[in-house]
Design a protein that fits this description.
With 340 residues, the protein is α+β, with helices and mostly antiparallel strands. The chain contains eight helices and 13 strands. It folds into three domains: 66 residues, Structural Genomics Hypothetical 15.5 Kd Protein In mrcA-pckA Intergenic Region, Chain A; 72 residues, 2-Layer Sandwich (Pseudouridine synthase), CATH 3.30.2350.10; 158 residues, Pseudouridine synthase, CATH 3.30.2350.
């Protein structure tokens, strides 16, 4: 059989534009070894608009990637521009609408609850992918190489804002913003002990991947970790604080809190005393400074869960959450979070 007689043509979308041919094909043909993909492109068996191209060629919207049917009948998740069917696992819980704090064609922002992983089985990501399959964004439905995913992660028991870029362009721009520190994340944290004033925690941190735990290196062999901490209120040997991680190490705030003798109550992994509710760490605010995304979005707030608000009110008084947000806004205006 002449395989060139049976060609599937896959349209290049906005979310594929500018990407290398070999990298797109690798996503489309995950069962093929990389050397095999190079060979298929080099021999002209896989083409662009019917023409032979180099493996490093960058495709453009409106072109087609032409793949013989006998090599691959359909790339995973691709539905030829049609709406994707919901995932086969009907046991995935639906994404509650009240978790969504912002949505456009470029970006979705969610307020993650505690007890839920960002990735993996029974995770936020499973719920988001199912939600997008039922409420598709036109530009990424038929993308050959782009799948929306979380821009950043939160630990299982950490709550608050998680961003999901829905287009390649938005994902790339927001990733650049993170690396250039034009995105700030402010956390509300309930710590042990008493802090009398603002502090800056500066440490070097290492990661034990086998035990899945971070620790302070004690020398220059680790990665630099910096967190700015502003106390809001203290009572009964507990402190409510705003935490701004300047760097973004895994478990950074939690491991530094332990190192600086104010671990999170309930965070037994990092020196906290066990309690029934677990620790309270909430990603309450994200600010985007000079991020060139089409939404022109500047900032987002995620409210605390009612149970967390009640916990803080029982310790510090009725209006403590409002006081916390007022201080956050004051510090933001004074550029507290943008001066490193």
């Amino acid at each position: 059989m002449n395989i060139e007689h049976h060609i599937n043509k896959y349209p290049v979308t906005d979310n594929d534009t500018g990407r290398r041919l070999d990298r797109i094909v690798r996503r489309m043909l995950p069962e093929q070894p990389l050397t095999g993909i190079y060979k298929l492109i080099r021999l002209g068996i896989i083409r662009v608009n019917g023409k032979k191209k180099e493996h490093s060629y960058r495709v453009i919207k409106g072109q087609t990637i032409d793949i013989p049917e006998e090599i691959k009948k359909d790339p995973p998740g691709y539905k030829s521009g049609k709406v994707r069917k919901p995932p086969g696992n009907l046991n995935i819980p639906l994404l509650p609408e009240n978790w969504i704090i912002y949505r456009s064609t470029n970006l979705i922002a969610l307020n993650k609850p505690g007890g839920l992983l960002t990735h993996g089985r029974d995770s936020l990501d499973e719920r988001v992918q199912q939600y997008l399959s039922r409420n598709p964004v036109q530009d990424n439905v038929s993308s050959l190489s782009f799948k929306p995913g979380p821009l950043h992660r939160l630990d299982r028991n950490t709550t608050g804002i998680v961003l999901y870029p829905l287009t390649l362009k938005t994902a790339q721009e927001l990733s650049l913003c993170i690396h250039s520190r034009r995105i700030i994340k402010i956390y509300i944290a309930l710590l042990s002990g008493t802090l009398s004033g603002p502090v800056i925690w500066k440490d070097t941190v290492k990661r034990n991947k086998l035990k899945r735990i971070s620790y302070i290196a004690g020398d220059d062999s680790g990665k630099r970790a910096v967190t700015k901490v502003m106390p809001v209120a203290s009572r009964n040997n507990l402190t409510l604080a705003l935490c701004f991680p300047v760097t973004g190490r895994t478990h950074q705030i939690r491991v530094q809190a332990k190192a600086h003798h104010c671990p999170f109550p309930g965070d037994t992994k990092y020196g906290g005393k066990k309690n029934r509710k677990g620790y309270l760490l909430h990603a309450a605010y994200i600010g985007l400074r000079d991020c060139r995304i089409e939404d022109n979005l500047k900032e987002l707030y995620a409210p605390l869960a009612q149970s967390s608000s009640k916990t803080l009110e029982n310790i510090f008084g009725k209006h403590i959450v409002r006081r916390c947000i007022t201080l956050l806004n004051t510090l933001k205006k004074d550029n507290f979070f943008y001066t490193f």
